[in-house]
């Protein structure tokens, strides 16, 4: 018969566990004694050494606001996008359901309102449980809050590899430090402040930090509206967010939820009927997946990305890129932008209608700004950020310069050849020199050789020539019927290349350069020495738009004509506030005198005629200053028809629309192509970019003002000077006899009949 063992001496049970308990206590450095009694009352070198070590630990904890989501807003306060490193929205304790407060205390720290940061009773209980072979935590909510604050600070500083996790890389010294900081924290903050801080910082899921984000993620609700079973479930998740994940592990989540509910019942926080109903409730989630970043914006992803790059490149938000990124993605900023959601919706519908889904990946874009402020009102393009069936996916912004993002992360495509949208600036210099727009010039001159006597007072030399006898070709128009005498006004209205060159031949090319620079036109890639590269107007091809320019640049330049000659830099950010409500640097209007007001009024007069009877009269649906409201515009098309434009304005809104090839080197010809089921022998500015412009302006411009443009002075309108001869004898293809020239009076010039699609160099 086997001899029975005395339980008192059963080393496998009682004695062994007592020894284990004593070992754990020793490892903790007699921590409990150190917390319970003064150091002088404790005997033993181990205890004294532990307490001395405890006394040397820091007692101050810098409680910075935890990482919070940044929100980008439209001008009306609607959300464009959220940006975050950790999805968190801070809410006050009174904006949380009483159930979540009771549930988290019941399961995590039921003596929360009794201890001073460290629960010695809980520590002893945990040691006994450990001695019995049962794992039980002893960290109070205050200690957990301290741990989360420390880890949050490490993450914000880019030191995520130093984050301390219970039971993984936290040593006895770390635990002691945590306890001392918890005690100090309890002396500094109220219990309510600590509980609020904890519930706002604690991790629930990789897509949900803090109770508000967790409520939205798991249940599509707010922390304030959490039900009892929902609150109990979330309170249970924090113990092990992966193991108790109600999406991946609903059975585990239910067991833990019901344990929380039992604790709440036992502690008198809920009644039996509430408990019974809650445990009978199945675990059901209603997930709202967070959409972090501009790419997920439903209204304006590319504008949002433009705003983001403006901030990431702004030294006011940090000394270096890493600091600025932390500020933006963790700082809980509220960024209110200039974007008009209504105008943006109209813009998006127009570019999508032009080429929303096309297998050949033709691009369409539209951007508008407000004259007098430079505020960007809309910015749209016909692409999607992520690949999708039947969609053109593109991450680069068609509307902005490449230099809007520095370094290798270029968010802007860098622009397109603007074609004849550059012609108004040569026309402006003609007026600026006091010349009448009614002056007749010889549009039959097609040859400008290397030795042509251009006037150019700029240091930069004049570059280029048109001469079929010397390695290039003679200057061409889109249609054969315009190699003849006509007024400077008619030349601009009908977008005649030879008249533009005849105009430039009578003015200082440097004057054109100064106007182009003054209205903010630039292009090409930036460098340290030249952050805003010029479009050199002493390079002859640029008179008719050979250098790439961004639509936003063109819209802002044309806005100058609407604003009595004052140029305003484009701005996108009205205000920025941080999580405390403090104002951070934003953008304010930055305007300057650029063009003589009389010249601006003269250009407006001429570009109204573009729409009334010139190349813009072919736009369908048509906007005419005579039938709707005062509006001025210019069409543009490059040599290969791969880049087509309309840029124009009312008194209150300037818009540039573009359609063409955005791929690679942009050399794909827009000729003999089918777009949206329609065949084009050659795409011209009025054909696709034109309807984008007219439909958009008809719907949006009235809200921003459509006042009549001031009339230019009579000397710029009438009293034409005698026909000016060319400066050199240049071979022409048609008669140069002024007697055969058409009437110069712009009020009696005939309306053009629809012209055939161009087959030669158009630049219209």
From TrEMBL:
<dbReference type="InterPro" id="IPR050396">
    <property type="entry name" value="Glycosyltr_51/Transpeptidase"/>
</dbReference>
<keyword id="KW-1133">Transmembrane helix</keyword>
<keyword id="KW-0378">Hydrolase</keyword>
<dbReference type="InterPro" id="IPR001460">
    <property type="entry name" value="PCN-bd_Tpept"/>
</dbReference>
<feature type="transmembrane region" description="Helical">
    <location>
        <begin position="18"/>
        <end position="41"/>
    </location>
</feature>
<dbReference type="InterPro" id="IPR023346">
    <property type="entry name" value="Lysozyme-like_dom_sf"/>
</dbReference>
<dbReference type="InterPro" id="IPR036950">
    <property type="entry name" value="PBP_transglycosylase"/>
</dbReference>
<protein>
    <submittedName>
        <fullName>Transglycosylase domain-containing protein</fullName>
    </submittedName>
</protein>
<dbReference type="InterPro" id="IPR012338">
    <property type="entry name" value="Beta-lactam/transpept-like"/>
</dbReference>
<keyword id="KW-0511">Multifunctional enzyme</keyword>
<keyword id="KW-0645">Protease</keyword>
<keyword id="KW-0812">Transmembrane</keyword>
<feature type="compositionally biased region" description="Low complexity">
    <location>
        <begin position="715"/>
        <end position="754"/>
    </location>
</feature>
<dbReference type="Pfam" id="PF00905">
    <property type="entry name" value="Transpeptidase"/>
</dbReference>
<keyword id="KW-0328">Glycosyltransferase</keyword>
<dbReference type="InterPro" id="IPR001264">
    <property type="entry name" value="Glyco_trans_51"/>
</dbReference>
<keyword id="KW-0121">Carboxypeptidase</keyword>
<keyword id="KW-0472">Membrane</keyword>
<feature type="domain" description="Penicillin-binding protein transpeptidase">
    <location>
        <begin position="369"/>
        <end position="650"/>
    </location>
</feature>
<feature type="region of interest" description="Disordered">
    <location>
        <begin position="715"/>
        <end position="764"/>
    </location>
</feature>
<dbReference type="Pfam" id="PF00912">
    <property type="entry name" value="Transgly"/>
</dbReference>
<feature type="domain" description="Glycosyl transferase family 51">
    <location>
        <begin position="77"/>
        <end position="264"/>
    </location>
</feature>
<keyword id="KW-0808">Transferase</keyword>
